[in-house]
Amino acid sequence: MTQTHNKIQRDLxxxxxxxxxxxxxxELTLIVENDFxxxxxxxxxxxxxxxxxGFTYSAGFTDMExxxxxxxxxxxxxxxxxxxxxxxxxxxxxQVDFVQNFEEGLEGFVITNKNQDLFKGKFWRADETKVxxxxxxx
Length: 138
What we know:
Layout: H1 3-6, E1 17-20, H2 22-34, E2 42-51, E3 54-62, E4 69-73, E5 76-83, H3 85-90, E6 93-101, E7 106-113, H4 123-126
Parallel strand pairs: 1-6, 2-5
Antiparallel strand pairs: 2-3, 4-5, 6-7
């Protein structure tokens, strides 16, 4: 994680709502139940980059960090994902799907931010409320 993530005032960030499609839920459950190497790991949603059209997202299994939010998948505490405060601030309303299209060479989880249009270009210059709350320097 980068330094920026550790500077966000976590208690001022609202935990996001994350929904999974049936296909994504089936795939995640299959992976968790059958891959013993993932014991003790969590499925993380994260912001992996920024382009003119908005953020780019990725997902994968990692260890949990102290500042992470734990989000129940589709309201069930049987399956959970983690998300750092930076990503949580911008992914307030996200959906995770699983795509499998061998003809196009696509397979994996796809994260859709339902608020993506709010984060195009240099959005933070026009609206300071779109900048995560930072910890006060002492």
